[in-house]
Amino acid sequence: MQISVVIPLLNEEESIPELCSWIDEVMKKHSFSYEIILVDDGSTDNSWHAIEQCAVKNANIKGIKFQRNYGKSGGLYKGFEAAQGDVVITMDADLQDSPEEIPELYRMITEEGYDLVSGWKKKRYDPLLTKNLPSKFYNATVRLFTGIRLHDFNCGLKAYKRQVVKSVEVYGEMHRYMPVLAKWAGFKKIGEKVVQHQERKYGTSKFGMERFIRGPLDLLSVLFIAKFSKRPMHLFGGMGVICFVAGAIILAYLSYMKIALSVYNMTQRPLFYLGIVCLIVGFQLFLTGFLAELISRSAASKNEYLCEKKLNT
Predict the structure, then answer these.
(1) Alpha-carbon distance 101 to 91, whole Å?
(2) Those residues with Cβ within 8 angstroms of residue 278's Cβ, 6 or more apart along the chain or in another chain
(3) Is residue 19 part of a domain?
């Protein structure tokens, strides 16, 4: 199979038939063998019924229905797990991503050898203050910390080699940082393509103001996971050693002053308490690193999602 299109969705009953029909037209036009994997992330409308109707008309459409809402990362994880295509395309279900971009994304992966191609919505139809400006700031921050020169990390329209989605584990809110996770998994040829962004035709955006808080926290999580998930002792242990040594030096200096130079009232100095604090914090950080090392070697699966129904999978 050439292409798997993975689409996580939440309450998009009006968009689903039109989107599936549009993708089918593009695939037939270019004679692609394909599958569409629609992951219903706990919708409360008739989205699953719309998926069932589409699957009856088109055997290439597959569906996964979560018992409750797990978030976009959960939907992508289950979609990636089910994907069988050589190239995996992800897109949103709100019709703001154009399926007409799929052939060129596929070509960039198969002919130009990219591991991942991310869409860039150069011209956006989103509100300036609530989406455009925060998006620019967010993307600039991620570029600064990761060194990946992409303009739009959060664009839902992306193309991956199959090996990438089978190698990178996405959970929590990590879907925003798939290029970062792919890079640190060893897939370094990451490209970008300007894609058409369309105005939302049905419904409303599912992303609220909480993303302004989650975004920076997710970035810190990704940076930590990418660099230290397999060796947490290197981070916590290193900081612990620095604090412990600093405390030991401070207390050694105060001890020398008291014993050799007969300077009194050492325990009443702020420097004495700083030394004690550094010793305690250093020991705690080292112990944290040790426990994190044990946990990382025996962690249970983080990706367990209860699926109520499946279609053609």
Answers:
(1) 10
(2) 243, 244, 246, 247, 250
(3) yes
Cα gap 291→213, rounded to integer Å: 28
**Residue 289: which domain range?**
232-297
Q: What percent of the chain has pLDDT over 90?
A: 55
> What is d(CA 105, CA 87) in angstroms, rounded to the nearest whole number?
9
| pTM across the whole model | 0.75
**Hey, which residues does 193 pair with through a beta bridge?**
119
Strands (E), the chain: 3-9, 34-40, 61-66, 87-90, 116-120, 158-161, 190-194, 307-311
- Residues paired with 89 in a beta bridge: 5, 159
Q: Look up tokens 């040594």; give the residue.
A: 245
3-class secondary structure per residue, 36-71: EEEEECCCCCCHHHHHHHHHHHCCCEEEEEECCCCC
- Laid out side by side, the sheet with 34-40 consists of 190-194, 116-120, 158-161, 87-90, 3-9, 34-40, 61-66, 307-311
Q: Return the CATH number at 155.
A: 3.90.550.10
**Quick one: 163 and 206 in the same domain?**
yes
The mean pLDDT of 166-171, rounded to a whole number, is: 86
- At 16-57, the pLDDT tens digits run 999 999 999 999 999 999 999 999 999 999 999 999 999 999
For residues 149 and 278, membership in a common domain is answered with no
Asked whether 115 and 160 are in contact (CB, 8 A), the reply is yes
